[in-house]
Amino acid sequence: MVAPTADGADGGNVARGRHRIFLGYAPGVGKTHAMLEEAHARLQAGEDVVVGSLEPHSRPDTAHLASGLERVPPLVVSYRGASFDELDVDAAIARRPTWLVVDELAHATAPGTPHIERWRAVDEVLSAGISVLSTVNIQHVESLGGFMLQVTGMSVSGTVPDDVLDAADDVAFVDISPDELIERLKRGEVYAQDDVARALTHFFRRSTLITLRERAQALLAERAARLG
């Protein structure tokens, strides 16, 4: 799906950027937090790190951790009277950092955005020689659609092809126990308090979380076996 090099503006070849994906088994495990912590560590080590897109989901700790990181101004897309902030690929490539932070790889962009899915935008950034830190949950992995419907009863919109994970240089599993995740949910650290009770009887049932966690671990083992 991806090429190892891309034509540069000077007509030469540009080495493809590195892609590090932070994988979670459910919302709230801390994948965005882990990604931002690495972004800060790389920045402190002297690397040029810029945020291209971030989905804080109204979580104060995420917004706080993002402070101090330079951001590429978003591409504002208008659709049906509403405005949406999307990753501005052209601006990111023009800025040309060493690393670009892009949250929610499976995000479906607003109509009128050059790339209809964020992972496609990331692929263009990587092809331009810029490395990317990104995040995704297993419910958005394309091959797991049937599994997710069976386990959670939910049909997921917005997916990432499996070969995007295979092509990544590294997939880091961000893991906490289901019990700890449930406690985070109850404290209002995942969803608003009004949504907690329903979540506990649906997606965040302990048995469901255990199954999702085991499937995420199996997914990584399967990836490792394919890649040798």
Throw out a few tags for this protein:
alpha/beta; two-stranded antiparallel ribbon; single chain; Rossmann fold
Summarize the SSE layout with pairings:
Blueprint: E1 5-7, E2 13-15, E3 19-24, H1 31-44, E4 49-53, H2 60-66, E5 70-71, E6 75-79, E7 82-86, H3 89-95, E8 99-102, H4 118-127, E9 131-137, H5 145-152, H6 162-167, E10 170-173, H7 178-186, H8 193-200, H9 206-227
Parallel strand pairs: 3-9, 3-10, 4-5, 4-8, 8-9
Antiparallel strand pairs: 1-2, 6-7
Helix pairs in contact: 1-2
Please describe what this structure looks like.
The chain has nine helices and ten strands. The strands form three sheets. A six-stranded parallel β-sheet has the order 5-4-8-9-3-10, with helices on both faces. The N terminus is likely disordered.
Overall shape: globular
The computed structural class is: alpha/beta
The CATH topology corresponds to: Rossmann fold
Total of helices: 9
Encode the helix/strand succession as letters: EEEHEHEEEHEHEHHEHHH
Kindly provide the name of the CATH class: Alpha Beta
Tally of extended strands?
10
Radius of gyration: 18 Å
* Strand order in the largest sheet: 5-4-8-9-3-10
Unreliable segments (pLDDT under 50, ≥5 consecutive)?
A: 1-11
Task: Summarize the model shown.
The chain has 228 residues and is an alpha/beta fold. The chain has helices at residues 31-44, 60-66, 89-95, 118-127, 145-152, 162-167, 178-186, 193-200, 206-227; strands at residues 5-7, 13-15, 19-24, 49-53, 70-71, 75-79, 82-86, 99-102, 131-137, 170-173.
